[in-house]
């Protein structure tokens, strides 16, 4: 599950050129929750 979430976020980050707010919007999650998840997954 972690690998899937990690690849999904990384793909979105590439698509949105690193803009976290746009990634959160695209994934329909709150930006704070996305940041927390990214830290847990070692992306941020």
UniProtKB/TrEMBL annotation:
This is Anaerobic nitric oxide reductase transcription regulator. It comes from Pseudomonas amygdali pv. lachrymans.
């Amino acid at each position: 599950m972690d690998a899937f979430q990690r690849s999904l976020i990384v793909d979105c980050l590439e698509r949105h050129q690193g803009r976290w707010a746009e990634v959160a919007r695209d994934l329909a999650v709150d930006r704070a929750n996305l940041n927390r998840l990214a830290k847990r997954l070692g992306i941020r």
